[in-house]
Amino acid sequence: MQQSKIGFYGHVKQYHNLKAEIDQAILEVLESGSYVLGPQLAKFEEELARYMNVQDAVGVNSGTDALLLVFLALGLGPGDEVITTSNTFFATAEAIWLSGATPVFVDSDPKTRNMDVTKIEAATTSRTRAIVPVHLYGLTANMPEIAKIAKTHGLFVVEDCAQAIGARGDRFTIGEMSDAVCLSFIIQKNLGCFGDGGAVATHNKELATEVRKLRNHGSLKRSHHSVGYNSRLDDLHAAVLGVKLKHVDEWSERRRQIARLYDKGLAGAPTALPVTPPGYEHVYHLYVIESADRDGLQAYLDSKGITALTHYPIAIHQQEGFPWGRPARVTALPVTENSAASVLSLPMYPELTDKEVERVIEELLNWAANREALSQRAV
Ligand SMILES: *Cc1c(COP(=O)(O)O)cnc(C)c1O
């Protein structure tokens, strides 16, 4: 019997589940005639600020621009160093480069794969201005420790929260211990619109105003206070995001349910499973396992109609696009490099059925049994 395929994303199913609400929200924007910096954007910004429990939220064009505009608003530029991780999507470092500053990478924690906070102190210099942790795969970074180091050295903290809306730490929330939180709403993120989108969430009203200027050609009303960008979140996207924001927590809960099924089903498999520190609430943007034979496993799953992807197969400091012409300090990052060679993201989205999750587990266990049989024959 031909099994149906299990893809990596569920956003078309998600749209079908909310079709009536989403279609109506879109039609209302079309009829309103307000498409840019209109009432839907203002409404979504208020809802997002409330959801994130911060003073203000500013919609922008993308998660990348959210980072870049915050860096510029904070006055980062050439000569400044920003401590971050190489185990992330390229955009985290790219936004630092685009601001004119230089990323300085510290290695990842061998358990959580988030920034290894024990490595930050040694990476600081007199040029360090900011720390940019990434809440990788939907797991909050160790913010209390990061905030402590930042305070000692007088550094800004900007959270790259592109993958972790709705996540929580152990007795702390995202946004509580930083200058700004940067979000991405590209469709594959846990809260996604039908295109590109992003936002900055912050307690700092002045910073929010500065980002509002920068996203709109340096302008708040009529006059231009500075040179800026064209980086606004369209009202169409804002309306869709407003509908979906109400469902984010229930989707996160379903993601955690799926993670528990994977955790249980794969407990005996020869793969490393994701680790959540006590008290943290993971939102499983990705469910990432590790295997020494990652490529073999990925190909096997693919042959069974199951799509698994790699996040990220090449660390940023090893990318061809790394701007070597620019000043950079790159030290050995063994944990990050090991991740790049071994990580595999299994299908993870709220619309996955238990049956589909069970099939992924079954095929992964089949792969492990085949490998064991092969290695015994070789002896
Ligand atoms: C997606 C992502 C970004 C960039 O967001 P865009 O909206 O695609 O520009 C930045 N950082 C991380 C960690 C991401 O996953």
Helix-strand topology string: HHHEHEHEHEHEEEHHHEHHEH
Task: Write down the overall mean pLDDT.
Answer: 95
CATH superfamily of the largest domain: Type I PLP-dependent aspartate aminotransferase-like (Major domain)
Unreliable spans are none
What's the CATH class label of the largest domain?
A: Alpha Beta
Structural class: alpha/beta
Overall shape: it is globular
**Would you report the number of β strands?**
9
Query: Assembly type of the shown chains?
Result: single chain
The distinct bound ligands, ions and cofactors come out as: pyridoxal-5'-phosphate
- Percentage of residues in DSSP E strands: 5-15%
Give the number of helices: 13
Give me the CATH fold name of the largest domain.
Aspartate Aminotransferase, domain 2
Proportion of helical residues: 40-55%
Strand order across the largest sheet = 1-7-6-5-4-2-3
- Just name the CATH architecture of the largest domain: 3-Layer(aba) Sandwich
Radius of gyration: 21 Å
Describe it for me?
By secondary structure, the protein is of the alpha/beta class. It folds into two domains: 11-245, 3-Layer(aba) Sandwich (Aspartate Aminotransferase, domain 2), CATH 3.40.640; 248-378, Alpha-Beta Complex (Aspartate Aminotransferase, domain 1), CATH 3.90.1150. It has 13 helices and nine strands. It has helices at 11-17, 19-32, 39-52, 63-73, 91-99, 120-123, 143-153, 205-214, 235-245, 248-265, 294-303, 334-342, 354-378, and strands at 56-60, 81-85, 102-106, 128-131, 156-160, 180-184, 198-202, 287-290, 343-346. It has a seven-stranded mixed sheet with strand order 1-7-6-5-4-2-3, sandwiched between helices. Helix 5 links the parallel strand 2 and strand 3 (102-106). Helix 3 (39-52) runs parallel beside helix 9 (235-245), helix 4 (63-73) runs parallel beside helix 5 (91-99) and helix 10 packs parallel to helix 13. The chain starts with 10 loop residues before the first helix and ends with a helix. The mean pLDDT is 95. The site of pyridoxal-5'-phosphate has 15 residues, from helix 4 and helix 5.
